[in-house]
């Protein structure tokens, strides 16, 4: 269906005594196709072979993907349930002993029961993630609300995709990460990419990005750093961290002034134009430049190119979303497409680069504090009714909405929440303001962690349940296009490890809630119930059967029934999902970052990823090749700034903010603003940059402002002498 | 149809997936045989791969006193034969790019064999299969010719195999700067 000029028929190499299992990468939202090489004698995964026939990535993989298979039979795998009896050892790796599943389940049921008897049902919490299948994400929501009967469930998408979700819901009335398939990208005439280090975070998009330029199209990149993609951009908008809203308003103003607004589209298919036009008038190139630090000529040139382009795609990622105005940034950049009418047709549209493998699907099916499967709302009685029918509970039994990920730690601090069931996430590295978060985790009465490695967060647990890696289970994930794809099982679970859905179904039995889960014996059973639960919601997966996914190279949601082939392009009929069918152009006043530089903290600290590591690094830091390539974090500093502090390349310095401090090796580069320093966030313990970041939350998405806070550097005199 | 490794250096994003992939090829014993360099590390993020160019008349093989470096019928210049290599490292010195690597423990040279277990059957090498930026590609001569026409460079250095280096190479290289000849759409 979406086979394009990059697609070639290529045979795979199959070595003797080996077979290939088609699947996708375990990591980012690109979900590159790959074949796992399995030894047919040992039935173990032993390597990787490109999957040339996957239309999105045609065999390509970044180094994380190439080495992903090494996770499964890794020496660090947890093979049996672990219990720690001595709570004083919390926060360390010490004191765990092996136990049987029965002992672990019994202990969890006992502790959870005691706490709930004493403090009420809502004393329990579930902290989840979206680097796992839709089936697991779906069941985790049900597990929290039906088995644990608590309102407190949320997930790490609050640190990842929630601003994009909030912005799209406001602008379009629907949250599908991309309005068009990736196979359109190389055919557009202009890519406007804001806050995405695409070459490192979504590398396999790059051959399509470069192809736009090869055809004579344009690439515009907004980023405080000259990232590998910005290096080749036609215009690099090198803005101050946290000033995107001004930049987007400034460009929108020029688009309108220069006559690039599509009056017919605006009149027929949008609301809010006049009000927005008035608001952005103030954002002249000069004023925008004052706020953002980007030269006025660059802003003018960028607006001219985007305005003139017959087709254009606006894209963004965590750079604009991980701000306390992330939702506004998303809607502001989306305004560019809505005002010019460059949306709702092939080769034009808006997309976010979804961070986690299932960042899209995982946020749609009820792991978010206020959502139920199919993107239903827990505050909508009709929605609750629909889901209750599938779950077999009464609407009265449905818990109330909970709070967002970071706010759960605040409730732990306040002892409203006394226990946590953590899975598929490592908040002891990935949450902001870590001194506070780690203290909150340490203070819990009881904590369970389900993981396949002993993560930094697992160090706070009383019980660790060994889960499987992605290749020891099957199910679907939804990639960054909104395409539902199939992850296949390549090997039996190592040791006594089990998939999360099975653990939750079994634990439900011990919690006395078995009757709601005991019919779920296989991943496919969960899939069938999940499709039914999503049916009728606007993220409708009912028609996306595993067979259809296989036959069609994935299915784009919405896909309502057996005959529906899915929806690769959104809004082709120019119908948006708000009740009046119109999209919303949003008038968004500028707000500066929550913490602006001052005399004491004169630098802007921003954080992000490197190509070799994924999220908290719990997986990738254990892979030899990736660790060799990037063994430790560093702070990127412009040479002019470095000279001011009298610090040199590869020297260690103390970096600190109002919340915390850490020591980092200096990496001097001219490819960053002079007022900004950058540290990658994949590292644990005293190397975590999130010890320093600020928990200023977006009012709508509750996304913390990872991307901008005020910091200071101090030279380590002693070390220098040594 | 004969295909060749083709490099478009301007595209490189420094992800080093080519290095990771090289460890995955059959017979590579999980050691990579290619290189990626930061072109100007303290200044910008430009990187480039350094690959064996599979010279038509390879200096590495010519310099080998033990005839350990064989040339495959496809033109691929193979890694040293284990039983013949004497570990003198002449090849590394002779190669204009210093490509052959040396295993001090085994006293043995190893180098890029163009993933011969794949390319002998026309299957792209591992590095060119995975390269996310299309810096490394596996193309037919016709496709390469089309590239040459598309990127009409003004410096006349479309191929790096300059006479004063090593003469003709089986691998084709497109130097940085390919975009300078592109006509913009609007
Ligand atoms: S991490 Fe992302 S880009 Fe890299 S191989 Fe995996 S899915 Fe592809
Ligand atoms: S895989 Fe390609 S883009 Fe990545 S470092 Fe190698 S040549 Fe460069
Ligand atoms: S590039 Fe070097 S190693 Fe490769 S064939 Fe030529 S001389 Fe030999
Ligand atoms: S062609 Fe094969 S052996 Fe040579 S560098 Fe690429 S992956 Fe390694």
List low-pLDDT spans of chain B. Answer: 159-164
What fold name stands as the CATH topology of chain B? Alpha-Beta Plaits
Largest sheet: spatial strand order of chain B? 6-1-7
Q: What percent of residues of chain B adopt helix (DSSP H or I)?
A: 10-25%
Structure report:
Chain B: It holds the Pfam family Fer4_11. Chain B: Keywords: 4Fe-4S, Iron, Iron-sulfur, Metal-binding. The complex is a heterodimer of chains A (722) and B (186). With 722 residues, chain A is an alpha/beta fold. Chain A is built from 24 helices and 28 strands. In chain A, the strands form seven sheets. Chain A has a seven-stranded mixed β-sheet with strand order 5-4-18-17-16-6-7, with helices on both faces. Chain A has a six-stranded mixed β-sheet with strand order 24-26-25-28-23-27. Chain A has a five-stranded parallel β-sheet with strand order 10-9-8-12-13. In chain A, strand 14 and strand 15 form a beta hairpin. The longest helix of chain A is centred in the first third of the chain and has 19 residues. Chain A is globular. The model of chain A has no long low-confidence stretch (mean pLDDT 97). Chain B is built from six helices and seven strands; from the N terminus they run βαββααββααβαβ. About 3% of the residues of chain B have low confidence. The complex binds iron/sulfur cluster (SF4) (4 copies). One iron/sulfur cluster (SF4) binds next to helix 2 of chain B.
């Amino acid at each position: 269906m979406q086979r394009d000029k990059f697609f070639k028929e290529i045979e795979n190499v199959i070595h003797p005594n080996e077979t290939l299992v088609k699947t996708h990468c375990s990591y980012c939202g690109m979900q590159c196709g790959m074949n796992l090489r399995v030894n047919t004698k040992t039935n173990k995964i032993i390597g990787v072979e490109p999957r040339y026939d996957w239309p999105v990535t045609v065999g390509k993989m970044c180094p994380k993907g190439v080495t992903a298979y090494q996770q499964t039979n890794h020496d660090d795998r947890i093979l049996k349930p672990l219990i720690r009896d001595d709570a004083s050892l919390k926060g360390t790796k010490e004191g765990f002993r092996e136990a049987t599943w029965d002992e672990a389940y019994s202990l969890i049921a006992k502790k959870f029961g005691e706490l709930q008897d004493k403090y009420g049902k809502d004393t329990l919490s579930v902290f989840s993630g979206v680097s796992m299948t839709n089936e697991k994400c779906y069941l985790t929501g049900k597990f929290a609300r039906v088995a644990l009967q608590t309102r407190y469930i949320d997930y790490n998408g609050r640190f990842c995709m929630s601003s994009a979700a909030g912005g799209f819901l406001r602008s379009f009335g629907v949250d599908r990460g991309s309005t068009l398939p990736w196979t359109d990208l190389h055919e557009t005439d202009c890519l406007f990419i804001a806050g995405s280090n695409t070459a490192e975070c979504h590398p396999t998009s790059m051959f399509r990005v470069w192809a736009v330029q090869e055809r004579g199209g344009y690439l515009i990149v907004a980023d405080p750093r000259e990232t590998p993609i910005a290096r080749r951009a036609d215009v690099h908008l090198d803005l101050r961290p946290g000033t995107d809203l001004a930049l987007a308003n400034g460009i929108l103003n020029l688009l309108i002034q220069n006559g690039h607004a599509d009056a017919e589209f605006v009149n027929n298919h949008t609301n809010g134009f006049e009000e927005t036009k008035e608001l952005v008038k103030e954002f002249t190139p000069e004023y925008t430049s004052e706020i953002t630090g980007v030269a006025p000529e660059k802003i003018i040139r960028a607006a001219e190119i985007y305005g003139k382009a017959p087709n254009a795609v606006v894209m963004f990622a965590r750079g604009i979303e991980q701000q306390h105005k992330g939702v506004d940034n998303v809607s502001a950049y989306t305004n560019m497409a809505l005002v010019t009418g460059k949306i709702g047709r092939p080769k034009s549209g808006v997309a976010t680069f979804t961070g986690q493998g299932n960042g899209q699907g995982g946020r749609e099916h009820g792991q978010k504090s206020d959502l139920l499967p199919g993107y239903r709302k827990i505050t909508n009685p009709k929605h609750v009714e629909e889901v209750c029918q599938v779950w077999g509970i009464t609407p009265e039994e449905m818990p109330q909405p909970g709070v967002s990920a970071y706010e759960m730690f605040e409730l732990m601090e306040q002892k409203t929440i006394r226990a946590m069931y953590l899975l598929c996430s490592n908040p002891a590295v990935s949450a902001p303001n870590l001194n506070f978060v780690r203290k909150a985790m340490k203070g819990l009465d009881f904590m369970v962690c389900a993981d396949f490695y002993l993560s930094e967060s697992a160090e706070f647990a009383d019980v660790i349940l060994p889960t499987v890696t992605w290749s020891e289970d099957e199910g679907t994930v939804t990639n960054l296009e909104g395409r539902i794809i199939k992850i296949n099982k390549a090997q039996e679970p190592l040791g006594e490890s089990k998939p999360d859905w099975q653990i939750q179904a079994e634990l439900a039995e011990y919690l006395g809630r078995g009757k709601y889960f005991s019919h779920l014996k296989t991943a496919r059973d969960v899939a069938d119930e999940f499709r039914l639960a999503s049916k009728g919601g606007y993220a409708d997966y009912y028609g996306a059967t595993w067979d259809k996914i296989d036959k069609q190279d994935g299915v784009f949601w919405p896909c309502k029934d057996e005959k529906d082939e899915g929806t690769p392009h959104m809004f082709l009929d120019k119908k948006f999902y708000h009740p009046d069918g119109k999209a919303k152009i949003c008038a968004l006043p500028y707000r500066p970052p929550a913490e602006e530089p001052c005399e004491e903290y004169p630098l802007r600290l921003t954080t992000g990823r490197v190509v070799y590591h994924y999220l908290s690094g719990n997986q990738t830091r254990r892979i030899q090749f990736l660790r060799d390539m990037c063994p430790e974090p560093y702070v990127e500093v412009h040479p002019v700034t470095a000279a001011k502090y009298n610090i040199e390349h590869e020297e260690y310095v103390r970096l600190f903010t109002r919340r915390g401090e850490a020591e980092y090796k200096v990496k001097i580069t001219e490819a960053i603003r002079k007022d900004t320093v950058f540290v990658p966030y994949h590292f644990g313990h005293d190397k975590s940059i999130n010890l320093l970041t600020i928990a200023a939350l977006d009012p709508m998405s509750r996304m913390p402002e990872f991307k901008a806070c005020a910091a200071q550097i101090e030279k380590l005199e002693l070390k220098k002498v040594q | 149809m004969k295909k060749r490794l083709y490099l478009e250096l301007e595209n490189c994003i420094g992800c080093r997936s080519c290095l990771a992939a090289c460890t995955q090829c059959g017979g590579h014993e999980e050691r990579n045989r290619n290189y990626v360099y930061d072109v100007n590390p303290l200044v910008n993020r430009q990187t480039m791969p350094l690959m064996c160019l599979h010279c038509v008349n390879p200096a590495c093989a010519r310099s080998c006193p033990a005839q350990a470096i064989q040339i495959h019928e496809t033109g691929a210049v193979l890694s040293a034969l284990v039983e013949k290599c004497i570990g003198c490292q002449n090849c590394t010195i002779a190669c204009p790019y210093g490509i052959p690597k040396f295993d001090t423990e085994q006293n043995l040279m190893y180098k890029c064999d163009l993933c011969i277990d794949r390319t002998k059957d026309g299957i792209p090498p591992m590095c060119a299969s995975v390269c996310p930026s299309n810096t490394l590609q596996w193309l037919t001569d016709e496709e390469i010719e089309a590239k040459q026409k598309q990127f009409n460079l003004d410096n006349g250095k479309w191929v790096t195999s300059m006479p004063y280096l090593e003469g003709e190479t089986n691998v084709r290289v497109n130097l940085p700067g390919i975009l300078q000849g592109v006509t913009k759409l609007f």
